[in-house]
Each structure stands twice: as structure tokens, then as C-alpha cells.
């Protein structure tokens, strides 16, 4: 594993994106978002995903010059068209606008259709929390998960993000509707390990912890079985209805062909009714109640969502971003 | 099992509520909400729960005369105080106001603090959908669930509701953050059955499907393990912050003493940008994609959340509400 300074990685990504036709005013931001994702420890969706992002530009699914555009306004609600541009830049703009609407109206909502994969969903939760707002956002995806009771992948794993601002570090939940991602199952299989809990069905239709069996059956579990399945359906419906955009069943099920997806961004202003520092103390007290909980295993402790992020961030900024040698070599060769 | 006409059950509940001091203009609505919950097949939270509701009036936790009151307004966002009145009436008023705000601003939000158990959360999802709006609401609860990694019950099962309007029947998801409720586990145990999937830990800390073992350990599982645990934490934080009300850790863990809880109601207007019938067709097409999915077991079919409700409703209106004889006798004796 290489450790490379943030600025050096970002400069390398900027160089690649420029060659691909990105405009000057956006290239730094797009590269930064990839680096920040790796910096925060979400390695699957940061630099390790850059090559796949580049592939979607080369195959025309992502138009590097397309900018998101507001199509309709109605009070605290706006509908945007992503014009199939870079999904991370569009999502950043959409949450930015939801935050502005939330400041003005107490709650703001942007429905962003015809966009592309936003990479790490938590980015936009952190964005809201860093602005002192509660952020809620979700995306639909290509069909990659069987619904509860179904044998075919017709629903998406539709990540849902909820973020709460706190002076001592935001609380950010970033969760897909599948219990385990294919990437996670692959990692377990390569390490020769079983999943810690049931993750899907084997070829005979039995619940299993065997990651290889689930990869073969293509039947991973929705988180919470029928519950995550139902939530995935509702998130997809609402996103498609509010954007007038595509629902999961209309999206290509080939990863590098996935495009024209639908996303929702909500921002709530916790400072609307009380001084923000006082309101944030309410979240602090909930965190304390978790930390005071007796652990299930001696010596461990209960954590809040996102608790490790600031620690990982500090370490990766101090030591350099961790980058696999082959990933780094590929980027330098692009 | 008795089958008693809706109107007869409602009249009986009205009689009890009058004796408990309910005002004339609200008694019919409160009774109706209990009957509608049983009518729709959510038996745990309808007439079967009425005695427990009455107990909370008698012990002073629910003030039958208290009405919810708006405390602060900020554009599309309002903060309400439930004054510890009947939780179902306060929630109905709060979602009603969120719907009005949503019509005016595209999105509306009411944060309702200091309220009581709303009984069936799906009621307020149906309310939004019947008004042509997308409804999203959640409540916190008393501590009744261990967080992931914890041995003590310090988080709530915090039900989350999402509802989408459709001419042919709303899609309504109504799910608690526990994989199984204590009521469900009790039912399985009494029938001598194992849970269909892991539902909690036994006394040795092993995952189990044995409902009795989980009832003894008081360690049911959050749905999706760490995922539902994290979502429960965020729902609680946001509700407490936006209401300036109580978080789960501050609420009594004795069921009939639970009071002063915090709830969020959001309404999104799907007709803001396009003709509502066209927008609802987007949801119809998602439903069709589920119905067209090959089932995991031959002869079964994939259902959308709330799909059975209209069928059950029709049957219970035709045959009469199903009421256990002892439950009915107890109501008549109140």
C-alpha cells in the first residue's frame, strides 16, 4: 500500500480529468471529492472507483461538460435535470441548493433527475452537516437486488444518507439497502471468511453466510429482509416521482452503462427555532447515551454512525492517502 | 373471534372516551382511528391496544383535553407542542398541517414534540397519500432495543413511514427499526414456532430464531443489524433536535409511562411539477415491475408495501371488524 499526499493524488486526478474534457472551474472539485472519499476511509467509492468513473466518461454515459440545471421551482422545492453530467458534481450542487432553500424556508428539497452515480453518498450528508444543516438524501440505482419474495434483481440498493451537525463531529449514516455490497462479499470470499450474519441465499434458496454462494446465486439480502426491500421500493418511487425521472426498473443493469438515475436532497434547518449550539447539544446527549451503553462484548463500545471518520481522516491526512500500487500506476498511465 | 360492525365498535369506544373526559369534537375522531387501524388489519395497534391507551389516560400520561399547539413557524417548517394529549389526534393534526404546508411550499414539515404514542404510524402515511401527497413521518419511542454492539436497551424501535399516493391504492411502508416486535415474538412463541429469520440474541450472546430466548435476553435485533441501529439513532436525533423535545434516552422505559415523545411529519407535493395522475403512473410502473418479478417460491408473488391493505379493509368492512371476545367484553365493561 502506497501512502501518497492528498494534494499529489488530487493533482494526478485533475490531470486525467482535464484530458477527458472537464472544464477548469470544475475539475478541481471533482478530483477533490474522490480524494476526500478515500481520505475519510470509504475506499470503495474514492480513488479505487476512479477508473470506473473514467470508463463511464469514455463510453459516453457521463458527459464531463454537462451541468445540472434547475427545471422548475415551487417554493421550497426544486426539480433539477443533471443532463447526465458527473454525478458527484451534480449531487454537490443539488445539496448545496437544498441547504440554501432550507435556510430560507426551514426545509428545502431538490429532486435531481437524469443524473449519474454520486459516488460516496455520505459526501452530501457531510456537506449539509458542515453547513449546520440536517441533511437527508437518497439515490436510486440500477437493479441489483431481488425484492423480498423475488428471485430476480429488480430493485436497487438505493443508498440513504442522514446527517446531523455537531460541533464535535457530525453524525452521518450512509447505508445501502442491501445487507452487504458485492464488493464486501468479494472481500470476505478472498479472505476465506464467512459473512458475520446471513447475507443472501444460496442456489437452493437457503439463507447463507457464504459470500461465494451468494455471488453465484445473485441473490443478496435486502437489509432487514422485507424491511429494506420495502424501503428500497419507496425510495425509488419517491425519487422517480419527484424528479419525473427514471425508476430503477428503467436503468441499465450493467454497471458501466448505468445512467439517468434519480436522487432526492432534503435539508432541515435545526437553527430555525433555537440557537444552533443548544440544538446540537441534543445530539451530543444522544451520543453520550450510546457511549454509556454496556457493550455486548467486554472491552468494545457502542459507536454512532460516522464516529470513526474524523479519526481516519486525520490519519490519512497525516500519513498520506492509502492507494494500492496498481491503482496508482493505472491513474498515472491514464 | 367476534365480527362487529365498524359503527358499533366506534360507538362503544366513543362511549368510553366520553366517560374519560374527551371533548365532543374529538371523541369521534379518536375512536375512528382505532377502528380504522383494526379495519386495515393492523390488529396490534387498533382495538386490541385500546385498553392500554385508556390506562395511559387513567394514569395521567395522556391528557384527553390537551390539544396540539403551534409554537414556532419558519416558512415551510413548524414546531408544535403536543401538550401530552392523545397521540393519534396530535399526529393527525401535525400531518394535516404538513400537507397544507406542502401544498403551499412544495414541501412541508411539522416537528411535533411533547406528544404521545401515535398508535398506528401508517395512519398518517395513508392520510398524506389520500390527500395526494407523499408522506414521510417517524416517531421516537421509549428505549426498547439494544443498539448494535450494545447489551442494554438504549435506543427506540422508532417506526418510519413512507407513503406514495396512487389512484389504484397508495403504497405505504410502516416499519419499526426492530426486526420483530415483542408482540410478534410472543405470537410465534405461543404458536410454538421459530422466527423465520434471526430475531435477536440468546442469553449466551448467540444469534437465534427462538422467540422465547430473545424475550428472556431482552436483546432483539435491530432490522439489518448495524443498519437499523444506525437509522434508529438518526431518526431519534433529528426528531429531538427539530422538536427541541425528548430523545429516546429521556423517555420512560415502562410502556404505560411512556410520554413526551418526539415526531416528524414531512409532506412532498408530487403534483408541484406535473399533473398528479401522470406522476402517479410512475409509481404504477414500479409496482408493475415488482409484480413481474419471478417469485422466489413458485406460486407466490412479490408484493409492494401496503398491497394487502385495501383487500383486508374491504373484507373487514363487509364482515365486521374482528374483535377478540375478551377484548370486546373489556371495552363494554369500561
List the helices and strands and how they pair.
Two copies of one chain form a homodimer.
Chain A: E1 2-4, H1 6-19, H2 24-39, H3 50-58, E2 69-74, E3 77-81, H4 87-105, E4 107-115, H5 122-130, E5 134-139, E6 160-164, E7 171-175, H6 182-190, E8 200-201, E9 207-208, H7 211-217, H8 226-243, E10 261-268, H9 276-291, H10 309-319, E11 321-323, H11 325-333
Parallel strand pairs in A: 3-4
Antiparallel strand pairs in A: 1-11, 2-3, 4-10, 5-6, 5-10, 6-7, 8-9
Total number of helices of chain A: 11
Based on CA atoms alone, the radius of gyration of chain A comes out at: 20 Å
What's the architecture of one domain in chain A, going by CATH?
A: 2-Layer Sandwich
Give the biggest beta sheet of chain A: 7 strands, mixed
Q: Mean of the pLDDT scores of chain A?
A: 97
Cα end-to-end separation of chain A: 20 Å
User: Residue ranges of chain A: pLDDT <50 for 5 or more in a row?
Assistant: none
Describe this protein's structure.
Two copies of one chain form a homodimer. By secondary structure, chain A is of the alpha+beta class. Chain A has a domain at 66-268: 2-Layer Sandwich (Ribosomal Protein S8, Chain: A, domain 1), CATH 3.30.1370.60. Helices cover 41% and strands 16% of the residues of chain A. A seven-stranded mixed sheet of chain A has the order 2-3-4-10-5-6-7, with helices on both faces. A two-stranded antiparallel ribbon of chain A has the order 1-11. Chains A and B meet through strand 2, strand 3, strand 4, strand 6 and strand 7 of A and strand 2, strand 3, strand 4, strand 6 and strand 7 of B.
Amino acid at each position: 500500500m502506497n501512502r501518497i499526499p492528498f494534494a499529489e493524488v488530487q493533482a494526478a486526478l485533475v490531470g486525467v480529468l482535464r484530458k477527458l474534457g472537464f472544464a477548469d472551474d470544475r475539475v478541481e472539485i471533482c478530483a477533490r471529492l474522490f480524494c476526500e472519499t478515500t481520505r475519510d476511509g470509504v475506499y470503495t467509492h474514492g480513488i479505487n472507483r476512479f477508473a470506473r468513473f473514467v470508463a463511464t466518461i469514455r463510453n459516453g454515459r457521463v458527459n464531463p461538460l454537462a451541468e445540472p440545471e434547475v427545471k422548475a421551482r415551487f417554493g421550497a422545492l426544486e426539480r433539477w435535470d443533471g443532463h447526465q453530467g458527473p454525478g458527484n458534481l451534480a449531487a454537490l450542487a443539488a445539496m448545496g441548493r437544498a441547504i440554501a432553500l432550507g435556510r430560507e424556508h426551514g426545509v428545502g428539497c431538490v429532486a435531481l433527475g437524469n443524473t449519474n452515480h454520486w459516488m460516496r453518498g455520505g459526501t452530501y450528508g457531510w456537506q449539509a452537516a458542515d453547513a449546520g444543516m440536517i441533511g437527508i438524501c437518497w439515490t436510486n440505482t440500477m437493479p441489483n437486488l431481488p425484492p423480498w419474495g423475488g428471485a430476480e434483481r429488480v430493485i436497487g440498493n438505493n443508498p440513504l444518507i442522514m446527517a446531523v451537525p455537531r460541533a464535535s463531529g457530525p453524525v452521518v449514516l450512509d447505508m445501502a439497502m442491501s445487507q452487504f455490497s458485492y464488493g464486501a462479499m468479494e472481500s470476505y470470499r478472498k479472505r476465506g471468511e464467512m459473512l458475520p450474519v446471513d447475507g443472501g441465499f444460496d442456489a437452493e434458496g437457503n439463507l447463507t453466510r457464504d459470500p461465494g454462494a451468494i455471488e453465484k446465486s445473485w441473490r443478496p439480502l435486502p437489509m432487514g429482509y422485507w424491511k429494506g426491500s420495502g424501503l428500497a421500493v419507496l425510495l425509488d418511487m419517491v425519487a422517480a416521482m419527484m424528479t419525473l425521472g427514471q425508476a430503477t426498473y428503467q436503468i441499465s443493469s450493467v454497471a458501466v452503462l448505468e445512467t439517468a438515475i434519480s436522487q432526492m436532497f432534503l435539508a432541515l434547518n435545526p437553527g430555525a427555532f433555537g440557537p444552533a449550539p443548544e440544538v446540537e447539544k441534543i445530539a451530543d446527549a444522544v451520543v453520550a447515551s450510546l457511549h454509556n451503553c454496556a457493550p455486548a462484548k467486554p472491552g468494545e463500545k457502542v459507536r454512532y454512525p460516522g464516529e470513526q471518520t474524523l479519526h481516519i481522516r486525520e490519519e490519512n491526512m497525516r500519513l498520506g492517502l492509502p492507494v494500492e500500487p496498481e491503482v496508482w500506476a493505472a491513474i498515472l498511465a491514464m
